[in-house]
Each structure stands twice: as structure tokens, then as C-alpha cells.
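Contributing new records

If you add data, match the layout below exactly. Sequence lines come first and carry their own label; structure lines follow with theirs. Keep one chain per record. Anything else will be rejected by the validation script.
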Amino acid sequence: MLKNFLSDTSQTSTIPVSTDVVDSPLPSQEPVKLLVVGSRRGVLNIIYSLFHRGFAQVHEWSPLLPGPKPGEVMSILIRQISTK
């Protein structure tokens, strides 16, 4: 699974990202999206840093996607939080 984050970003632009979990959350749950945008190295650094802190598994993040500016990439993590 780590290999997905090490591939060429030009190949990741055609990978669909499912948002099914966002479209139908449980009544007592609310989706929260975390977006990391920056250089490839910076984004991967944040993903691995959060993994080492026990915040999120690496495979829970979306594949690296093209960012809003040339040379940038981004990755998204969606978490469900309790609204109670």
C-alpha cells in the first residue's frame, strides 16, 4: 500500500476517489475532511508523521492528486466524528 504514495504523480490523476462515506454518514456522525497540499515530499512527510503519531493509517489517505499549483500535490483524509 505504501507503493501508491511512491509512484509518479502523473499517473495518479486518473485514479477515482470514492466519497461514498461522505454522501451517507450515520445520523449521529459527521464527516470531517483533512486536506494536505504542498510539495510531494512535504505531503508525504505529513502523512507519515501523522501515521507515526497514531492519527491515521497511510492507506486511509487518498492517492496523491495534482495540487492547485504546478509542482504541488494533495491528499485527503475523511474521518467520521460523533455529533453527540
